[in-house]
Structure formats: structure tokens, C-alpha cells
Amino acid sequence: MKLAVIQTKYSENVNINIAEKVKEASKNADLIILQELHQSPYFCVTEDVKNFKYAQNFENDLVFWSSVARENKIVLVTSLFEKRAEGLYHNTAYVFERDGSIAGKYRKMHIPDDPAYYEKFYFTEGDLGFNPIDTSVGRLGVLICWDQWYPEASRLMAMAGAEILIYPTAIGWLEEEGESETASQLMRWITIQKSHAIANGIPVATANRIGFEIDPSKTYKGITFWGNSFILNAKGEEIARASANNEEILYAEVKREETREMRDIWPFFRDRRIEDYKDLTKRWRD
Questions:
Q1: What is the tens place of the pLDDT at every residue in 110-147?
Q2: What is the distance between the alpha carbons of residues 12 and 120, in angstroms, rounded to a whole number?
Q3: Are residues 224 and 173 in contact, defined by beta-carbon separation less than 8 angstroms?
Q4: How far apart are CA 235 and CA 99, in angstroms?
Q5: Does the domain spanning 2-281 belong to CATH 3.30.565.10?
Q6: ∠ Cα 144 47 118 (to 5°)
Q7: Which segments of the chain are extended strands (E)?
Q8: Which of 75, 176, 253, 263 could form a disulfide with 201 if both were Cys (CB 3.0 to 4.6 A apart)?
Q9: Of these residues, 82, 145, 163, 247, which one is catalytic?
């Protein structure tokens, strides 16, 4: 599986910019992954009904990214603000096949409500479950950003036959946070995703955005998105990683044989005590 991860910042011509990068990446990749909500600024930094305008062009967005996939003959993982009905919106990853058809979609399941990440105001929790998307390049376990922190999500995708975990992402630092805290956050973010690769014996690809984006409400100065997009092999080893500040295209080739080799050596799925995990369906064990 030859893949590319595109890391960009938001600009007024962001769709054209990304489309040009997809064209460049298609020379060396069959699967191309874009970052979370790549068409717009990260509007969830504040709660404002005016931001629902970013979903008003949803049907045309599907046509545009379909044509990008078709023209470049690649499988394309996008992240769109889906307008499902009036007043009903999702944070949705649409996957397009080489011919521009929709291979499948994943609606973000875990929705954060943290300072400057007020996503519950905009997005309804996903209702499609944790189901991989079959494509011509393989079975893709697509999840989105906040899903990164949940081992249950990655495990369920792997158990359904996902051959790679893919995380479109928008994560960064608030300007008010200190240097030691920002370094710690980045370390934790990378570590948790390495654990998903190791525990499931499958590769992981994460596409994050870069750049400083202001908080229009002026509650905070804004968010500096920390980049560091990366690709891991089935051992959890980094085989490609981007910088914190630059627009980049990461390339890698991941091999299905490595998953088989890792699972033969470390048979975590064999040794799971599924009969003793019933309490995982509870909110807490009292």
C-alpha cells in the first residue's frame, strides 16, 4: 500500500492548494490522506451559528473532491462538514475511489467539548459505528482526531479487518499554554497512536494541520496547530514524520505481510479474555 499524507495550513485558496498537492502526491501514492476539516479554518474554536455556513456547500464539496480523486486516479480520504439535514451536522470522512465514486464514509464518534475545541456545538455524534471502508487499495479503518485517544475505537476497527488506521486530525496548542505543557501534549498524542499500532499489529497514518488560527471571540489568542503528521508501520515505528511548521507531503509504503508477522509473534487477539470484558460497556465500574 503506497500512501501519502498531506499536511497544510488554512488559506483562502486552500482547496486549490490541496488539489495541487494531491496531483503531486499521486505520482508516488495510490492512497492520499487529508487532514481534519481541511476546507475551512478550525471554526470550533468558538461557538457561533454563523459557522454553519461552512456546511452549506456540502453537496458541491462532494463533487469537487470526487473529481480530484478521479482526475488523479487515487483513493482519497477527505474530512468534510456534512450537512445531513437542517440543524443536523456531522464531522465526516468521505473516502473516494479512483473513479470518483464514494467508497464509504465515517462519521466522527467521539466529539470533544474542551476549551477552544467546542465541537459538540456543531457536530452530532456519528451513527455509522466503527466499520472499515473497502477500497481498491485495501480495507481502511478511518477515524477522526478525538477518536485517536480511545483504544476501543482502534480495536473495533482492527477486529473488523481494517488493514490500516487513518486519523484526519486538527490538534494544536493554545497560545496561553507553556512550553513544557505543549511538549508533553505532543508526546502523549504520538504515544497513544503508537500504542494502537502495536496493540493491533497494523499501520497508522495521521494527517494534522499546521499554522496559527485566531480565536474570533478573543476568549483565547488562538490555536497553533502542531503538525507532526506521521506514518507508523505495524510495529509502531515511525517511517515518516513531518515538521511542526511546514506544509509537507509524507510518503510511505506499508506491507500487509508485516501485520501477519507481528500477529504471529505477538498474538494479542488470541489471548484476549473476551468473556471478562463485559464491564467495558459500562460508563464506570462502581
A1: 999 999 999 999 999 999 999 999 999 999 999 999 99
A2: 26
A3: yes
A4: 32
A5: no
A6: 35
A7: 2-7, 31-33, 75-77, 80-85, 88-96, 102-107, 113-114, 117-118, 133-135, 138-142, 164-168, 172-174, 204-207, 210-214, 222-226, 230-232, 238-241, 248-253
A8: 263
A9: 145
Please pick, among 36, 119, 213, 248, the residue that the annotation labels catalytic: 36
Question: Three-class SS of residue 123?
Answer: coil
SS3 277: coil
At position 235, the amino acid (one-letter code) is K
Low-confidence ranges of the chain (pLDDT < 70): none
d(CA 135, CA 76): 10
Gap between the Cα atoms of 241 and 230, Å rounded = 4
User: 257 an active-site residue?
Assistant: no
The reply to whether 36 belongs to the active site is yes
Q: pTM for the complete prediction?
A: 0.97
Yes or no: say if 8 and 39 are a contact pair by the CB < 8 Å rule: no
